[in-house]
Amino acid sequence: MRRAVVLGASMAGLLAARVLSDHADEVLIIERDGSDVDDGPRPGAPQGSQVHALLPAGQLQLERWYPGFTEAAIAAGAVVPPPDGVRFYVEGVLRTAPPVPPTGQATTLVSTRPFLEAMVRHRTMAIGKIRLVVGRAEGLIFDGDRVTGARYVPEGADEIVTESADLVVDAMGRSSRLGDWLEENGWPRPPMLRMPIKLNYATALFRRDERISDVWVAVSTASADEARGKVARIGGFHVVEGDKWIMLVSGYDDDRPTRDVEDFTRRARAHFPTPFGDIAERAEMIGEVITYHQADSRRRDFHKLDRLPAGLVAAGDAVASFNPVYGQGMTSAALHASCLSAYLRSGPSPDAPARAYFEQVRVVVDAAWQTSTFSDLSLPHVDGPYPPAYKLTKWISDVVFAASMTDAAVNRRLDAVMTMRAHPNTLMRPGTVLRALWLSAVRGVARSRRSEVSPAAG
Ligand SMILES: Cc1cc2nc3c(=O)[nH]c(=O)nc-3n(C[C@H](O)[C@H](O)[C@H](O)COP(=O)(O)OP(=O)(O)OC[C@H]3O[C@@H](n4cnc5c(N)ncnc54)[C@H](O)[C@@H]3O)c2cc1C
């Protein structure tokens, strides 16, 4: 390719540009937000002030596209938590320690989102043939059955500028207007599937103090139980660069954490295990509590389009954006970049629509969607859309999940899925299901023995 144009310079856009630099003489990124990426959260990616976890699969991808990334991130301040400093709580109970990755595999790398994005931005922009202009993308240029460029308004200007391209990448995030642009030019918009989740986040930063807690990373999940008046809540905190903790408390539907510090502290103490309350009450808060609401998980199914122009792809949240509590977004963006690489390496015709790319992306989206929406269907306020064979799959998943609480082998397999290193269908393999069923039967026998013994003992 002579030139590729990428719309959006967040995680998906930067990773796509990195991949395109192997295939095009020139890559131009158009980004509306001219903020300095080293200055923390920026308006163009407002979710940046919230807790962001990079899953190990995402880290492996970053290492692939930017060799030495992990080492450089650690040198710049990213944190690798010690295994004994990590706590996972389910329904308030400490869960079996997560498996320690074998040497040479991705460790968990923790940082704030702006730190990570800045690292990716600097590494991408260090590639000579990639250029970034600040301006708002306003539309595409079409010629017959293909996209031949993009239009944008440079920052501070009124006039629209056009840029020609052999390939345009939409990486404008979940609110991308690509569908409108396609429709305005006589093409169908990709069908969008939404699952309303009504998620409410509140995040705060604290100065780390080992006298208050020696925990580096904690994640606590509690599911809803309407009969007992319990609501679903997820909380988490990590040590991040600069020796700080970043802490999230969340709720669903009308359970909305506010920006009020007292509300944050009360929730941390009342809804989550002890270290949450200890940090929120006793550590020094840096800055303010920042809230975020996400109404839905959504996916745009480009692979279903019967007409699609050549010269156009989409990546990252512009294709699919999930409930963020599962931490899949940045890793999905990185996997989409790998799909783009595989597609371009296959030598596709420049005049044919990128169907093979969207078919690969579909595998990534299906897997992430399956994991996140499946769990979200258990929320009382979420009533679909249900996948086929939902009840049976849910029953099997519940058995596997229960087994993972005590069994290291099942825990390892579940962890591979939750960290996006394995496809969720791997949990449905007979070896895993039979092991989980056997463990469930053993637990059942032990329970009935206990109940036979306890009256006598009492
Ligand atoms: C509260 C919250 C918490 C999250 N936590 C995690 C987590 O723990 N782990 C994880 O992996 N993911 C998490 N995510 C998801 C993650 O933030 C996204 O998946 C990721 O940022 C996707 O990147 P993107 O590049 O596709 O889109 P975005 O980050 O949304 O970026 C879109 C970019 O396009 C630019 N843009 C938009 N319109 C235009 C235009 N017209 N012209 C030019 N530029 C434009 C924007 O300025 C922006 O830079 C979270 C999301 C939220 C909301």
Describe the structure.
It contains twelve helices and 15 strands. The protein has 458 residues and is an alpha/beta fold. The chain has three domains: 240 residues, FAD/NAD(P)-binding domain, CATH 3.50.50; 103 residues; 68 residues, no CATH class. It has an eight-stranded mixed sheet, with helices on both faces. Strands 7-6-5-2-1-8-14 form a seven-stranded mixed sheet, with helices on one face. Helix 1 packs parallel to helix 4, helix 1 runs parallel beside helix 8 and helix 2 crosses helix 8. The protein is globular. The model has no long low-confidence stretch (mean pLDDT 93). This is FAD-dependent oxidoreductase. It comes from Sphaerisporangium album.
Describe what is shown at a glance.
By secondary structure, this protein is α/β, with parallel strands linked by helices.
CATH superfamily of the largest domain: FAD/NAD(P)-binding domain
> What's the gyration radius in Å?
23 Å
CATH structural class of the largest domain: Alpha Beta
Unreliable runs, pLDDT <50, ≥5 residues? none
- Summarize model confidence as the mean pLDDT: 93
Number of domains: 3
> Helix segment count?
12
Share in β-strands: 15-25%
- Alpha-carbon distance between the termini? 79 Å
CATH topology of the largest domain: FAD/NAD(P)-binding domain
Classify the helix fraction into a percent range. 25-40%
Molecular shape: globular
- Attached small molecules: flavin-adenine dinucleotide
Provide the succession of SSEs.
EHEHHEEHEEEEHEEEEHHEEEHHHHH
The name of the CATH architecture of the largest domain is: 3-Layer(bba) Sandwich
The main β sheet shows up as: 8 strands, mixed
Give the strand order, joined by hyphens, for the main sheet.
4-3-10-11-12-9-13-15
Task: Give the number of DSSP strands.
Answer: 15
Oligomer: single chain
**Category by helix and strand content:** alpha/beta
